[in-house]
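Friendly challenge for the regulars: who can give me the C-alpha cells for this chain first? No prize, just bragging rights.
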Amino acid sequence: MGLFSQDKIALSPQIEKMRAQVVVILASVYLRGEPQYLDAETRALKKFYSDHVRLVYGGGAKNNVELFLPSVTPEGRRTWDIRPSHQELVSNSRLMEALRSSPGVDLIFIRKSNDEIGTAPKLSGYMEISVFDRMGSEGLITVKRDTDSRELLYQYESKSANDPIRYMGSGPGEDRFRNYNEWNDLSVIRNHYYHNVVAGMGSYLYSKNPAIGDVTLMHSQGWSFGDNAGGAGGVHAEEKRTVMLFSGPGVKTGELKSRARYQTSGSQRKDQVHVKNSSHETYPTVVDSIPTILNWLGYGDRALSQFAADPTQTGFQQHLKQWVGGQQTLYFEDFIQELNERVKKVTPQSSFDADKYRLFLKRFFRFMLHQKPAELNGDFPLEDGNQLILDSEVSKN
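First reply, four minutes later:
Bragging rights claimed.
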C-alpha cells in the first residue's frame, strides 16, 4: 500500500520479528485520518452490528454497567440506527427475566424517553426514569428543569406496594420535587440505604451522552460487574458517603456544611414547586471544594459558570478548542522525541532520526483532528458545587 515505502529502519532481530504486526497496527491508526475510510468503516460496522450483534456490554466497573441493545423496526428487523423505546425494553421478557434472575443485579434503570435520546436536538427539560428491583417492584424518578433558575429538580414515587429504593413511607412529602442538595440532605438525615439515588441517578441519566446505555444496572452488595474492584458510581450509602476534613487558619471547628444556592419552596403539591435563591446550610458534596478554592483565589462565587458562559476569547468553548488543538500539536512533537529516544535505547548504533519522517508522521496523526470537542450550542453548564462554609465567626467581623 506504499504506507511505509521510505528507508527501512534498522531494528534489532527481536523487534524485526514484530514488524508485520506493527505495520498492521499503525496502518489501522493511519487510516483513521482518512474521512472516506471512516465513513466506510461506520457503514460497515452498523451493518455488521445490525446483522449479528444483539447486546453490547459497557463499563466493567465494580458497581455499575451499561447495556446497549438494538431497536426492532415495524418489519421486525433489528437496527442500531435508533435506540430501543422504553416499551421495547420492559416488554423484552428474556432480557428482564435474565436481569432479575442474576443475584449480582440490585437496581435496574430505564429512561422512558430512551428512543428520543439519539434523535432529539436537545433535552426537553423533562424526563421520566423507571427503576426496578429484582423482585419486580417499580418506582419512577421524574426530572425537570426550572425555567428561571435552570436548576434540575427531582421527584420520586413508588409504583408498587414495595418501594424498590425504600424511600416511601419514611417521612412526609417524599413524592414532591426537590433539588439535588435537598435530596442529599434527606438521605443523610433519614439514613437511606440507597443514598441520594433519586437526584444522583436522575442527574446522571438526564443526558444525551451516547456512552449511557439503554439499561443501567447497579450491583448488589457483595457482587461485582467487572475486574475493577475499586470502581466508582455506586448508590449504596457506604459507597456514596465519605469523610471530608478541612483544617487551617480561619477554618472554624464543627460539622462541615455548604451554602446552597437554591431551595424549593411554595406549594407542597408533588406536581408544583417553586425555586428561590437561598443561602441555607446543606450537607456538602466532594465537588464543593473546587468552586470554594476558586472563590478564595479571587475568581468569584460563580467562577465556573462565568467561565463557561464567557463569549470572549477566554470563554469555555473557545478555551476547550484551543486546549484540544494544543494537545494535538504537543502530542505529535512529543511522539517524535519519544520515538527517537526509544530507538536509541533499543539500538544504540542506529542512525535513525524521526525528523526524517516528520511529514509522514504528521499525516499519520491526522486521526486526532477528527476528535473535536462537542459544541455546547449555548446551553452552558451550571456551577457544579456550592461554597463550603469554612470561615470562622471572627473572620467575618
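Residues 1-6, 393-397 have pLDDT under 50 and may be disordered. The longest strand covers residues 126-133. Your move, everyone else.
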